[in-house]
């Protein structure tokens, strides 16, 4: 199959500046639904990647996302949510973005075109064969990502990718490609839209399913979440009330003593 830059094709819509607000919203929403369907079509690829990743994480490996621009920011976002949601070590899931932390809020000129920097950025974490690297690039051609993935493969590091252009360079060089054909963007070439939406959905799947498989969830509850605010403390109390059959005061007292839902459950079940 030939490589075609679907993400650069002209939008299915034109004369946007003369459309009403409602028309624009309806058109964007129609395209968003296409992105969701594209993710559905890629579930077998996502499953294959997670199956390999699960084994790596269970054996003290780490997950790294690497990307540039919107793709990089989404990787950093997903990684940063893992410690508060699942109680993981901040180094367990890491987001690496071209241009470094400054690129999270400001575009860094030419950062995505640096073919050596991606591998250098990964090496700051002493990356090795126990780890797993996922390149995120809608185009599938971002030099920063593609060259980093190549170096990972050369060093026996398992790799995956999320791209919106099937048969792209990044997909052809990684072990577990996830190719999501979302079609042309609503704004021609603006991959922050459908491609970004699909990427976020897949990232949610990757970490959520992996953490469930690693035992970070009981039933449907986040028993390892970090209790960093009032809302989360109240949620933890409700979980304990439901799991242990105790009243609110007892649940609150247990949480105050043991500091986490998992620790309370472990101590309660041992008695």
What does this structure look like?
The chain is built from 10 helices and 5 strands, in the order H-H-E-H-E-H-E-H-E-H-E-H-H-H-H. The chain has helices at 21-41, 43-58, 69-86, 117-123, 143-154, 169-173, 194-213, 230-244, 248-258, 261-270, and strands spanning 63-67, 93-97, 132-136, 158-163, 176-179. Helix 1 (21-41) crosses helix 7 (194-213), helix 3 runs parallel beside helix 7 and helix 4 packs across helix 5. The protein is α/β, with parallel strands linked by helices. The radius of gyration is 21 Å and the shape is globular. Strand 3 (132-136), helix 5 (143-154) and strand 4 form a beta-alpha-beta unit. The chain has 2 domains: 6-213, 3-Layer(aba) Sandwich (Rossmann fold); 230-270. The protein has a 5-stranded parallel beta sheet, sandwiched between helices. The model has no long low-confidence stretch (mean pLDDT 95).
Shape call: globular
Strand content: 5-15%
Q: What is the residue-averaged pLDDT?
A: 95
**CATH topology of the largest domain, what is it called?**
Rossmann fold
What is the CATH domain class of the largest domain? Alpha Beta
Helix coverage percent? 40-55%
Number of domains: 2
> How would you classify the helix and strand content by structural class?
alpha/beta
Number of strands: 5
Order of helices and strands: HHEHEHEHEHEHHHH
- Can you count the helices? 10
Reported for the largest beta sheet, the result is: 5 strands, parallel
Measured on Cα atoms, how large is the radius of gyration? 21 Å
What distance lies between the first and last C-alpha atoms, to the nearest angstrom?
61 Å
Strand ordering within the main sheet: 2-1-3-4-5
- Poorly predicted runs are none
What is the fourth-level CATH superfamily of the largest domain?
Glucose-6-phosphate isomerase like protein, domain 1
């Amino acid at each position: 199959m030939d490589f075609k830059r679907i993400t650069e094709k002209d939008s299915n819509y034109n004369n946007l500046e003369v459309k009403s607000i409602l028309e624009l919203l309806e058109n964007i929403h129609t395209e968003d639904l296409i992105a969701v369907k594209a993710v559905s079509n890629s579930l077998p690829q996502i499953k294959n990647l997670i199956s390999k990743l699960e084994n790596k994480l269970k054996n003290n490996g780490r997950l790294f996302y690497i990307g540039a621009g919107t793709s990089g920011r989404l990787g950093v976002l997903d990684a940063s949510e893992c410690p508060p949601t699942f109680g993981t070590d901040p180094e367990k899931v890491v987001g690496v973005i071209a241009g470094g932390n400054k690129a999270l809020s400001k575009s860094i000129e030419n950062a995505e075109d640096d073919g050596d920097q991606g591998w250098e950025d990964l090496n700051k974490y002493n990356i090795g064969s126990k780890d797993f690297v996922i390149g995120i690039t809608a185009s599938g051609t971002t030099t920063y990502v593609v060259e980093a993935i190549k170096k990972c493969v050369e060093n026996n590091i398992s790799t995956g990718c999320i791209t919106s252009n099937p048969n792209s360079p990044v997909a052809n060089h990684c072990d577990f490609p996830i190719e999501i054909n979302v079609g042309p963007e609503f704004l021609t070439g603006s991959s922050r839209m459908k491609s970004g939406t699909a990427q976020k959905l897949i990232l949610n799947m990757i970490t959520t399913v992996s953490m469930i498989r690693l035992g970070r969830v009981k039933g449907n509850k986040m028993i390892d979440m970090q209790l960093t605010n009032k809302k989360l403390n109240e949620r933890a109390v409700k979980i304990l009330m439901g799991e242990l059959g105790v009243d609110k005061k007892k649940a609150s007292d247990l949480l105050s003593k043991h500091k986490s839902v998992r620790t309370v459950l472990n101590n309660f079940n041992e008695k």
